[in-house]
Design goal:
Bound molecules: beta-D-glucopyranose
Strand content: 25-35%
Largest sheet: 10 strands, mixed
CATH architecture of the largest domain: Alpha/alpha barrel
Low-confidence stretches: 1-25
CATH class of the largest domain: Mainly Alpha
Number of helices: 16
Number of strands: 50
Number of domains: 5
Length: 899
């Protein structure tokens, strides 16, 4: 477009603008609106215990929407909100593009109070949106004094036993509203008049109970009858050991008087049909023990007999009460399994179709006392029976004993299993399809990413990774869901975080896990190998950079600055501790390092997962460098300049020590010059500029030497793929990723995997042989970060600005996918066809993207038939290497470029 044409267009736009301005000079715009209002990343939460950060998204019919200003009003009732009476808070018109983390300033929020809010935004001085639809948040119990109930338990409770606590409630008047604040630990469920309240399972979220206990708030206003109501709470040992209950039900009557029913007035406790239930071993349910007395209103007479006992008040066994912020665990999917084989007469083995976490629900008819068992496993023996060897000490068996006399339906409540196959014994007849359902159980976080490309193998790998991650979200990110472990290992998390945060919405899950980590920290600053701490070592292996990476990713992906500032001191203490463990700049300990490389690269092929070629202390030192760097960046974001400088200094010194000790001038690589050491050093970004090419060459050479196979463990696999791609060898990275021979993800798939293995080998025996282990899945983030190229920016958190820089291996003809972000959906799709590259991207409202197009000449890149240099919204930035860089505001763009 020449200058004259441009001037004409500008004039036309100007005229259109003038004509659109109403007499008042202000216009309520219909072409953009505010949607998806959230408080603390939740839609209309009840029972929160922090002053919520508010957020919203904008939908616009046009390109280039950026918010110039916003106004939030908060009212104490919906009527007031509708009348725009902001009796709680009025932000006024704030000139800002902020749509995340907006705090309600100077307001002390009251326990139990519900607050209503809405928001409107301005695009420019003249155009503003309608008010959004109203949203609300309701506070929980904010101070310890709000807790009127103490804890109860039953000290003689036997290990593994589920205790049923019981109370009765007779309302005095007509109920207007009721809330149950409830914490039964290990796991519990609330039944009012025989009906379960809500659809959570395995509540509350696990924690370090001596530091913090989660409570869940339920709206129980509609659960009560006028007459006597029975309230029964079965509590299982879960991760605590001895069941405990603390609950209060707060009732507001129509006349606004209130009544609080506390569980420490529940005097009766009994055992019931769930005879025992533990996380690893499974559940035993004896339906013959069901009795109407349990759920019928009224306290049973004759307490302290064989059946009923007094529930005892126990001393406060636990830490502070905290509202559960993480999504609950739920049944998220139901699968009809296929009958694989009748392995012996009356013994049936079923296949759920994929490895997963959950349990089996049964429907059965038979004689009283018939015992049905369900044994869960990831693999089967040659004769078709289930192989439970790799579950180690976990019995993973559920048992149901029939009461007889009709159809009986049952599923376990307080355990879960990791399995693909299950073996049922004792069924009274042949199982029918409709009698058996597999329930998939996990923390109910949303899926946020999608990925697809022209190679079906990579699509299957992506699916396998998503299945694995989904199997390992149970209020903590577990290492595996099946054996006697299921722990939040921090070393695995170091490389898992990014994969998971592209695939799932973890804005509430990760901050919860950070609290778990913080709860393990001691006065010296040490954290532990797993959080909550039930396993492994203290201090944690220094490769547990996940504590800092979690904060960094929450900041980048969700704009969560609070998490950074809340944990800043804790992160600092951990880094200080690591620094105190250096000698000549090298961290003096390591347990796991780059854990579980292929067998030939293990220090002891029949022992643990320690690598023979990748020095553990090198890994420890590298992570001290990385953590110091991240801490320095976070300090800058928090405006803590002194800390920023101090940790930058530590980082620099550590990088020097790393180079001094591990750079091998003779070979031109690090340590043993293996894939792990070289890719790790490159990833850290500490390789001397003059050495980079040699290191990259050595890396590529080594990959070729191994016939395009990796030799890396859980950590460095990530860095290997990323560094090859970054330094111009995306085709080499692609070859590794799309291998089908050992060791590779394709090899797992070829051997029937539907979830990732813990080892590169196919092993089913009694050791570290999980078949559902996320730690090897970092190729999952390579799909998003490199093949789609979606990368957030630390300096513009919450996707305010981000990068789209797709790398395109020659063997792929297309890749496409999306990411649901806090600002809206990012979409990327690229395709090569007849010498043309088609790159379609969607940039959400109120964000900006730098789009890297692998085009040599800007004139060759078009958008809607025009050269991009003539598209009003697009700004062409200086070229970077082989990429042309475009800065684009919100909108859909269909870029075309001759190859
Ligand atoms: C866990 C792994 C972890 C390792 C560290 C194993 O038992 O399952 O995921 O990396 O221990 O030692």
């Amino acid at each position: 477009m020449n200058i004259l044409k441009e001037a004409k267009l500008c004039f036309l736009l100007f005229l259109m603008g003038v004509l659109c301005i109403p007499v008042s000079g202000k216009k309520r715009a219909e072409n953009f609106r505010v949607v998806d209002l959230r408080s603390e990343y939740q839609v209309n939460p009840i029972g929160i215990d922090v002053s919520p950060r508010l957020s919203w998204r904008i939908q616009s019919d046009y390109r280039d929407f950026s918010q110039m200003a916003y106004q939030v009003i908060v009212a104490s009732s919906l009527t007031k909100l509708n009348e725009e009476q902001a009796d709680v808070w009025n932000s006024g018109k704030v000139l800002s593009s902020q749509s995340l983390g907006v705090s309600i300033y100077n307001k002390v929020l009251q326990s139990r109070q519900r607050y209503y809010w809405k928001v409107r935004v301005w695009k420019n001085t003249r155009e503003f949106s309608e008010w959004s639809a109203p949203a609300y948040f309701e506070m929980g119990l904010l101070s310890p004094q709000d807790w009127k109930s103490g804890w109860i338990g039953y000290v003689p409770g036997m290990p593994g036993r589920v205790l049923y606590f019981k109370g009765t409630f007779v309302p005095r008047k007509t109920i207007k509203q009721a809330r149950a604040y409830m914490s039964g630990i290990g796991f519990s469920e609330l039944y009012i008049n025989r009906k379960k309240v809500g659809d959570h399972v395995l509540d509350p979220a696990q924690s370090t109970y001596s530091k913090r206990v989660y409570y869940v708030t339920y709206d129980v206003g509609k659960c009560f009858d006028k007459a006597a109501n029975s309230i029964v709470v079965p509590v299982a040992p879960g991760w605590l050991g001895t069941p405990r209950l603390r609950m209060q039900i707060e009732v507001t009557y129509l006349d606004n008087t209130t009544e609080i029913l506390t569980s420490d007035r529940f005097r009766s406790v009994t055992s019931g049909p769930i005879v025992s239930s533990t996380v690893f071993d499974g559940e035993i349910y004896d339906a013959r023990l069901e009795t109407d007395k349990l759920y019928a209103p009224g306290i049973p007479p004759g307490l302290m007999n064989k059946e009923w006992a007094w529930a005892h008040n126990t001393d406060d066994p636990v830490g502070k009460m905290v509202a559960q912020k993480v999504e609950p665990i739920k049944v998220v999917e139901r699968i009809t399994p296929t009958l694989k084989q009748e392995v012996r007469p009356g013994t049936y083995v079923f296949d759920a179709g994929r490895n997963l976490a959950g349990w089996v629900a049964l429907q059965v008819t038979g004689q009283e006392g018939t015992k049905v068992t369900v044994r869960y496993a990831e693999t089967v023996y040659e004769d078709g029976t289930v192989n439970q060897e790799n579950l180690r000490n976990a019995k993973s068996t559920d048992t149901y004993i029939l009461k007889g006399g009709g159809v009986e339906r049952w599923e376990p409540r307080f355990t879960y299993h990791g399995f693909r196959y299950f073996q049922i014994e004792g069924l009274p007849g042949k199982p029918r399809k409709e009698d058996i359902v597999v329930k998939v159980v996990r923390t109910d976080v949303p899926r946020t990413g999608s990925f697809e490309c022209s190679n079906p193998l990579l699509n299957d790998i992506h699916k396998m990774i998503v299945n694995t991650e989904a199997s390992n979200l149970h209020s903590v990110p577990t290492d595996c869901p099946q054996r006697d472990e299921r722990m939040g290992w921090l070393n695995d998390m170091t490389v898992r975080i990014e994969q998971a945060i592209y695939n799932f919405g973890l804005s509430r899950f990760y901050p919860k896990f950070m609290d778990d980590i913080q709860d393990t920290q001691d006065a010296e600053g040490t954290i532990t190998c797993v959080a909550p701490y039930r396993f492994g070592m203290r201090p944690a292996d220094p490769v547990s950079a996940s504590y800092l990476l979690l904060a960094q990713k929450c900041y980048e992906f969700y704009g969560d600055k609070r998490i950074v500032s809340e944990h800043f001191d804790g992160m600092k203490a951990w880094v200080d501790y690591l620094y105190s463990r250096t000698s000549d700049g090298i961290v003096d300990y390591s347990y796991y390092g780059d854990w579980c490389p292929p067998r030939d690269f293990l220090a002891d092929p029949n022992g643990s997962g320690v690598s023979k070629d990748t020095p553990g202390k090198m890994m420890s030192t590298g992570y001290l460098y990385l953590c110091s760097e991240i801490l320095s960046e976070m300090a800058s974001a928090l405006d803590k300049q002194e800390d920023a400088a101090r940790y930058a200094r530590i980082a620099k010194k550590t990088a020097q020590a790393f180079n001094r000790h591990y750079w091998n001038e003779e070979v031109g690589g690090y340590a043993s010059n293996n894939q792990a050491s070289n890719s790790f050093a490159l990833y850290l970004g500490i390789v001397d500029a003059n050495h980079i090419q040699r290191v990259v060459d050595n890396l590529v050479e080594d990959v070729k030497k191994h016939n395009y196979h990796l030799t890396t463990g859980n950590l460095c696999t990530k860095y290997l793929l990323e560094m090859l791609t970054k330094y111009g060898y995306v085709d080499v990275a692609y070859k590794i990723a799309s291998q089908t021979t050992y060791p590779s993800w394709g090899f797992m798939l070829k051997n029937g995997a539907t979830t990732l293995w813990e080892r590169w080998e196919f092993l089913t025996g009694d050791a570290m042989n999980s078949h559902n282990h996320p730690m090897m899945g970092s190729v999952g983030s390579w799909f998003y970060k490199y093949l789609l190229g979606i990368v957030p920016e630390f300096t513009h958190p919450g996707f305010e600005e981000f990068t789209i820089k797709p790398y395109m291996p020659k063997e792929l003809t297309f890749a496409k996918g999306s990411l649901e972000t806090v600002k809206g959906t990012i979409r990327v799709s690229w395709k090569r066809e007849r010498g043309m590259l088609m790159l379609d991207v969607t940039v959400p409202e109120n964000t900006k993207a730098k789009v890297y197009v692998p085009g040599k000449d800007i004139k060759m890149i078009t958008e809607g038939k025009r050269s991009v240099s003539h598209v009003r919204e697009i700004i062409c930035l200086p070229k970077e290497g082989d990429f042309t860089v475009l800065s684009v505001p919100s909108g859909n763009y269909n870029l075309r470029c001759k190859l």
